[in-house]
Amino acid sequence: MSKLSYLFLFMAVLLIASPAYAQGAPAQATNWAVPIGAGLGMGIASGLAGIGQGKVAAAVAEALARNPGARAGIQLALFIGLAFIESLVLFAFVMIFLRAK
């Protein structure tokens, strides 16, 4: 699929999901959309972070194969980059719990 197709798919998901919050729920009803959205959001966040971490690890392996003498600097950049990627997933996890309350 092209990038434009992904954009249209993303926009369609946003337009379909928005009516779930269109009006207030009665007192006895539960809002079923929040747990489903939280699960989908965490799945997307962790999946994309996994893809990003894989690309970082591939780039580091290639860099070490090209220049083994620069291992210390490359390894430091690897760990900092992986920590930033993982922190984004943890921030998404915290935001999901804050919203679900």
In short:
The chain has 101 residues and is mainly alpha-helical. The chain has helices spanning 3-17, 33-66, 71-100.
Mind explaining what this structure looks like?
- The chain has 3 helices and no strands.
- By secondary structure, the chain is mainly α.
- The protein has a single domain (3-100), classed as F1FO ATP Synthase, CATH 1.20.20.10.
- The longest helix has 34 residues, at 33-66.
- It is elongated and about 65 Å long.
- The model has no long low-confidence stretch (mean pLDDT 83).
Task: Please specify the SSE layout and strand pairing.
Elements: H1 3-17, H2 33-66, H3 71-100
Summary tags:
101 residues; 3 helices; mainly alpha; 78% helix; F1FO ATP Synthase
Helix share, percent:
over 70%
Number of strands: 0
Apparent shape: elongated
Q: Uncertain spans, ≥5 residues at pLDDT below 50? A: none
Indicate the CATH architecture.
Up-down Bundle
Counted by DSSP, the helix tally is: 3
> Structural class per helix/strand content?
mainly alpha
